[in-house]
């Protein structure tokens, strides 16, 4: 076997991951391999030319097989495409495993530009197993031209990789019950992902969401909430959306606006059933259109004002696409589309056109150019007028904290050994254990840090009452005299510590007199080259016990099943948890040099950047390596200016962060706009039920891609099927 220098240069090993390959495409390539080649000079018949032509034909055919797959496919989240993707790989394996692994051989013909067969040799393409596993495949092209034969091969490793979890919601509710929000403010997206019918969510007292909103159920609005559509967290060149699977009932002032001009695919409100208003509602603003879709509309009470198109299309059951407009003042700065009947009882101004499939009652009350009113119209429902789809279900969770605690599968968890060590007696360390070691008490850390983002590093000193360097239990055994009154506790993650797992002793209850300040420093040197995240993380876990039984994956839901998880209850007042790199930038030396006390407001000039792009004059933290894992029936109550910089994965737990949080935090968006907020959490909060109080904000940042949270979603419906192109060979 040999590799020509030319082949080595042109075909370096690389990963080719394709996610939308149709079965027929694969068969088409294998069975016809229709490619075009440069014309050849048939007058040359020397052996060198014959070998070169045979080699070019074979290698071009093989590259056509590889390159066409890459060119004609693209990443997708579409379930149909994912299914085709899996079938394509299964089909390739079937061809390779035929004839006891010797594979499938097909003769290839070449068509010229005139449609006739070009005489540039005969080629056989073979797809076969390499070795004993069908996961390893070799594709061989063998061409004979005027008596000379050349053979090339591509060595492929097929793979089925669990799709990493994507977290785009600042707050995500997993439970099947409704919820009420009082003064909840979210910078980022929010969702209620359990598709249980009949749930009712309520927004009161100036609740605001600066992002997208997706919920299964109905939304009732009673006291002046705001949804400000911000750029998508997936693609910041796009806007965002509001999706409500059932009804929207507005009994008091409600505003849905956007910071971006509308374009196809975003800036819309999609209501699965009925929209009812009895008080003021605004949708969109001048220059920032927001379209609205519903299946029935009853606009009444006071003003309704919209910049964008209003669509009322038929829906399931009794929703016939009818609309009634009877508000005291109502203006649509756009066009109105009604698939059923339209009833106008008070003056309705429409700056665009009115299209009604059924009948119009009260046509004389429509303030619109007469020629722009169309009764008995046919609606195209295409392009901008197409109703967005409400997904049947959200991206479901497969694994739960209990799996991370107890599973022996390293593809699921990396922390089960540390967790189970708390219960088998091999790890009896508590915070007090470290307090008994003078090297961890009154700990001073000085480190060179780039505070300005210019590359210039300056020494920064921070001091801590206690340092934690390995997994342990946070129990009620610390001396209050030594560790009360806002003691700073450093959790120091390193290569030698590995993942640090901190078990919260069940019943841990710390009043405001304790108000601990936890700072997590992560200096593990093994870095994910794709995301830049460090390998090891810090986990705060519930004391859910060792009697947990993992009962396998449910064949219907595709979710892990478990039992035996102990209930836990925690109460903290004034608890603050920071990432070290944020902490040393957020506060000045007067705070960093103290080992106790409330750190107070962030220093003047500190701006937190929660977006995925750099913004001048701001600090953008890396994905959070601080993870809270709370098992089933766990309840967390955090009050009195508590603050969390980290991510909660608690899909079967209750998280109540009823606190005014950290004051004076300045946050920025990708355009450089700034807000000063009272902040309760920076991260994501995923819970069965979530409670809040007071006017405080929750700010989005992603969890670390190296944490176990990346395995929470995925499974049978979310695998990325593809192959690794290991190398080319010329025989």
> How much of the polypeptide forms β-strand, as a percent range?
35-45%
Q: How many strands appear in the DSSP assignment? A: 55
Question: Helix proportion of residues, in percent?
Answer: 10-25%
Question: How far is the N terminus from the C terminus?
Answer: 5 Å
What would you report as the Rg, rounded to the nearest angstrom? 31 Å
Main beta sheet strand tally, sense and closure: 19 strands, parallel
What are the low-pLDDT stretches, counting only 5+ consecutive residues below 50?
Answer: 1-45, 71-75, 715-721
Number of helices: 10
Coarse morphology: globular
Summarize the structure.
With 731 residues, this protein is mainly beta.
Structure description:
The protein has a 19-stranded parallel beta sheet that branches. It has a 19-stranded mixed beta sheet that branches. Helix 2 packs antiparallel against helix 3 and helix 2 runs parallel beside helix 4. The chain is globular, with a radius of gyration of 31 Å. The longest helix has 26 residues. The protein contains ten helices and 55 strands. The N and C termini lie close together (5 Å). It is mainly beta and 731 residues long. Helix content is 13%, strand content 38%.
């Amino acid at each position: 076997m040999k590799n020509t220098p030319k082949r080595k240069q042109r075909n370096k090993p690389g990963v080719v991951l394709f996610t939308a390959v149709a079965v027929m495409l694969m068969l088409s390539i294998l069975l016809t391999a229709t490619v075009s080649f440069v014309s050849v000079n048939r007058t040359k018949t020397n052996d060198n030319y014959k070998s070169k032509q045979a080699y070019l034909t074979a290698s071009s055919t093989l590259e056509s097989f590889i390159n066409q797959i890459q060119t004609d496919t693209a990443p997708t989240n579409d379930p149909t495409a994912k299914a085709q993707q899996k079938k394509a790989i299964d089909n390739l394996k079937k061809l390779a495993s035929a004839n006891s692994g010797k594979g499938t051989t097909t003769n290839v013909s070449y068509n010229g530009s005139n449609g006739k067969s070009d005489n540039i040799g005969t080629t056989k393409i073979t797809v076969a197993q390499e070795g004993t596993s069908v996961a390893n495949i070799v594709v061989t092209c063998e061409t004979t031209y005027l008596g000379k034969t050349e053979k090339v091969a591509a060595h492929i490793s097929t793979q089925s990789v669990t799709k990493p979890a994507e977290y785009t919601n600042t707050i995500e509710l997993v439970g099947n019950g409704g919820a009420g929000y009082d003064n909840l403010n979210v910078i980022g997206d929010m969702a209620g992902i359990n598709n249980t019918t009949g749930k009712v969510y309520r927004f009161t007292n100036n609740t605001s969401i600066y992002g997208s909103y997706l919920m299964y159920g109905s939304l009732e609005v009673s006291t002046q909430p705001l949804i400000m559509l911000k750029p998508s967290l997936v693609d910041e060149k796009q806007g965002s959306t509001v999706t409500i699977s059932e009804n929207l009932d507005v009994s008091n002032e409600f505003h849905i606006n956007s910071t971006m001009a509308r374009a196809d695919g975003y800036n819309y409100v999609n209501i699965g059933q009925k929209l009812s208003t009895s008080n003021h509602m605004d949708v969109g603003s001048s220059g920032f259109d927001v379209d609205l879709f519903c299946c029935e509309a009853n606009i009444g009470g006071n003003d309704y004002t919209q910049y964008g198109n209003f669509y009322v299309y038929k829906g399931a059951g009794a929703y016939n696409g009818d609309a009634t407009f009877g508000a005291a003042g109502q203006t649509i700065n756009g066009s109105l589309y009604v698939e059923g009947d339209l009833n106008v009882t008070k003056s309705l101004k429409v700056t665009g056109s009115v299209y009604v499939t059924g009948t119009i009652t009260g046509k004389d009350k429509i303030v619109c150019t007469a020629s722009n009113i169309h009764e008995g119209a046919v609606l195209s429902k295409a392009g901008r007028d197409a109703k967005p789809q409400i997904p049947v279900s959200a991206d479901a969770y497969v694994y739960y904290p209990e799996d991370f605690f107890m599973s022996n599968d390293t593809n699921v968890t990396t922390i089960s050994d540390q967790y189970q060590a708390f219960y088998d007696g091999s790890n009896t360390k508590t915070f007090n254990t470290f307090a008994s070691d003078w090297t961890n008490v009154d700990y001073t850390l000085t480190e060179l840090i780039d505070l300005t983002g210019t590359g210039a590093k300056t020494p920064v000193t921070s001091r801590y009452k206690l340092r934690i360097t390995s997994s342990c239990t946070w129990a009620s055994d610390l001396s209050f005299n030594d560790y009360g009154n806002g003691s700073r506790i450093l959790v120091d993650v390193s290569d030698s510590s590995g993942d640090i797992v901190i078990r919260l002793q069940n019943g841990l209850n710390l009043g405001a007199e304790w108000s601990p300040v936890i700072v997590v420093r992560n200096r593990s040197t093994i870095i994910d080259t794709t995301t830049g995240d460090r390998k090891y993380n810090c986990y705060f876990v519930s004391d859910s016990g060792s009697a947990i039984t993992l009962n396998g994956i449910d064949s219907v839901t595709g979710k892990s099943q478990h039992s035996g998880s102990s209930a836990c209850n925690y109460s903290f007042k004034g608890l603050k948890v920071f990432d070290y790199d944020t902490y040393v930038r957020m506060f000045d030396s007067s705070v960093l040099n103290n080992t106790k006390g409330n750190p107070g407001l962030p220093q003047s000039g500190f701006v937190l950047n929660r977006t995925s792009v750099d913004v001048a004059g701001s600090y953008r933290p890396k994905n959070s390596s601080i993870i809270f894992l709370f098992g089933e029936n766990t309840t967390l109550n955090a009050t009195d200016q508590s603050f969390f910089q980290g991510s909660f994965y608690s899909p079967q737990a209750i998280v109540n962060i009823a606190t005014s949080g950290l004051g004076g935090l300045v946050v920025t968006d990708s355009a450089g706009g700034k807000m000063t907020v009272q902040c309760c959490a920076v991260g994501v909060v995923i819970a069965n039920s979530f409670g809040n109080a007071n006017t405080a904000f929750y700010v989005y940042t992603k969890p670390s891609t190296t944490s176990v949270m990346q395995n929470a979603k995925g499974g049978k419906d979310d695998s990325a099927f593809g192959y690794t192109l290991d190398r080319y060979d010329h025989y």
